[in-house]
């Protein structure tokens, strides 16, 4: 397993910029607004032959435990408990604050080594400004500028010096590759509560305030079949409502997480039902070729369950043609009731998404589909389809060849897709169909 390094500090000292530099890509949202990061975010990078898991945390603030700031601090404290090394980041440009001193005193009692990082120490005066951090009693500060990339060679060296010895059995090329899962949905549908329930810990900050999750936050756990890497995304709103800069950045991170996943769990508030915004999110998952499972959350609070479920099934049947037969799991993320059925549904849908059909079975299906419903006439001429092949899985993708195949009408394409889905039992996953016309191989040859 990789060693873990937690990045800690009060809000707006540049923790997320530092984290992005350390993992070598822009994972965490970065903005001048204090408190952009609200949940712990993970990234992996190798240095000196060591695989390191970095955790970007919410800002440390002195606040009551029941407040948002208090819950953010509790989340950062939990990250420290997982860490092999803590990076305590201060702002060299702004100088030390009472909060810096209070949290430094707390970190001196921590059971893990602490490396003091003086950020925003760029230019000639940067090193001098960083010297003030000696007052915190945490040893030599490492002066860096996350924004400009200065001082990172020294920082990496200092990190490697303080990490525990590598486990001889540590295997960087783990064949147990995790299933990549994204939790998507409208704000306040219960996505973060669901992730906490799956993990069995208060990993994500939750509360009645909508939009608490701003980043797409990645974390790993194990279910009965193996590793799962799950991303809890910020709620996707209608574009007209995405007004603030931070929300635009959050929406971009959510869409990126959706593109990177294999299965998307769409969390729907059962008390509100599935509205147009939920359908937009599901269609986005379809468009990206991702398998979808619907988590019908807050089911314990629904009074007329039969009518509510019928309405949901009607909406799904009418509006999600590309994910016909999508799995629906009624559940309560808050109480945990029904959540145990979610991962088996995800694993089953994932298997459909990965399915490859043997060539013989595919040919028999194709011949039968053509005989049951012959191809149409286009401009008075019959489209002649000759054969089909499955070019890939993830999602299942078919390529059909024939004379004028590229002119195949949309309704006939839908017929072939639905027939393929029914015959080979592929509910809940998008199926791609591409058509290619045959050409005369001698048409472009020079005559002898």
TrEMBL record:
- All copies of the EngA-type G domain together span 3-167, 179-354
Q: Does the keyword Thylakoid apply?
A: no
The UniProt record gives the binding positions of GTP 2 as: 185-192, 232-236, 297-300
List the Gene3D superfamilies hit by this protein, alphabetically: 3.30.300.20, P-loop containing nucleotide triphosphate hydrolases
Residues that, per the record, bind GTP 1: 9-16, 56-60, 119-122
Q: Identify the Pfam families for this entry.
A: KH_dom-like (PF14714), MMR_HSR1 (PF01926)
What InterPro entries does the record tag this protein with?
Answer: G_ENGA, GTP-bd, GTPase_Der, KH_dom-like, KH_dom-like_a/b, P-loop_NTPase, Small_GTP-bd
The UniProt keywords, alphabetically, are: GTP-binding, Nucleotide-binding, Repeat, Ribosome biogenesis
What domain of life does the UniProt record list for this protein's source? Bacteria
Q: What does this protein do?
A: GTPase that plays an essential role in the late steps of ribosome biogenesis.
Q: How does it assemble?
A: Associates with the 50S ribosomal subunit.
Q: Could you tell me which HAMAP family the record lists for this protein?
A: GTPase_Der
Family affiliation: Belongs to the TRAFAC class TrmE-Era-EngA-EngB-Septin-like GTPase superfamily. EngA (Der) GTPase family.
Name the chain's protein: GTPase Der
Identify the coding gene: der
């Amino acid at each position: 397993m990789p060693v873990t390094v937690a990045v800690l500090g009060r809000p707006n000292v540049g923790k997320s910029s530092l984290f992005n530099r350390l993992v070598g890509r822009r994972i965490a949202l970065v903005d001048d607004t204090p408190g952009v990061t609200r949940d712990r975010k993970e990234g992996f990078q190798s240095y000196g032959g060591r695989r390191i898991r970095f955790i970007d945390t919410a800002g440390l603030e002195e606040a009551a435990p029941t407040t948002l700031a208090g819950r953010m601090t509790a989340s950062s404290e939990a990250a420290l408990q997982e860490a092999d090394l803590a990076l305590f980041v201060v702002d060299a440009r702004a100088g030390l604050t009472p909060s810096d001193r209070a949290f430094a005193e707390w970190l001196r009692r921590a059971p893990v080594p602490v490396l003091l990082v003086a950020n925003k120490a760029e230019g000639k005066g940067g090193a001098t400004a960083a010297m003030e951090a000696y007052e915190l009693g945490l040893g030599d500060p490492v002066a860096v500028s996350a924004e400009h990339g200065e001082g990172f060679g020294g920082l990496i060296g200092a990190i490697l010096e303080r990490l525990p010895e590598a486990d001889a059995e540590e295997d960087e090329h783990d064949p147990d590759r995790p299933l990549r899962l994204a939790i998507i949905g409208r704000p306040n549908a219960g996505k973060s509560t669901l992730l906490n329930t799956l993990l069995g810990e208060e990993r994500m900050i939750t509360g009645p305030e909508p939009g608490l999750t701003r980043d797409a936050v990645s974390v790993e756990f194990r279910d009965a079949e193996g590793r799962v890497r799950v991303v809890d995304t910020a709620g996707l709103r209608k574009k007209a409502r995405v007004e603030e800069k931070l929300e635009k950045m959050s929406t971009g991170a959510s869409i990126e997480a959706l593109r990177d996943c294999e299965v998307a769990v769409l969390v729907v508030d059962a008390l509100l039902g599935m509205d147009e915004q939920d359908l937009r999110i599901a269609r986005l998952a379809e468009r990206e070729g991702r398998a979808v499972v619907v988590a019908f959350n807050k089911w314990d609070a629904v009074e007329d369950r039969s009518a509510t479920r019928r309405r949901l099934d009607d909406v799904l049947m009418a509006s999600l043609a590309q994910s016909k037969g999508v799995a629906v799991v009624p559940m309560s993320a808050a109480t945990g009731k029904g959540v145990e059925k979610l991962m088996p549904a995800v694993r089953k849908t994932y298997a459909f998404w990965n399915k490859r059909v043997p060539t013989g079975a595919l040919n028999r299906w194709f011949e039968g589909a053509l005989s049951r419903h012959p191809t149409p006439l286009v401009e008075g001429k019959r489209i002649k389809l000759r054969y089909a092949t499955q070019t890939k899985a993830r999602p299942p993708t078919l390529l059909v060849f024939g004379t004028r195949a590229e002119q195949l009408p949309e309704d006939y394409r839908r017929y072939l897709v639905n027939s393929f889905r029914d015959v080979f039992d592929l509910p809940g996953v998008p199926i791609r169909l591409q058509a290619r016309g045959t050409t005369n191989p001698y048409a472009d040859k020079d005559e002898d």
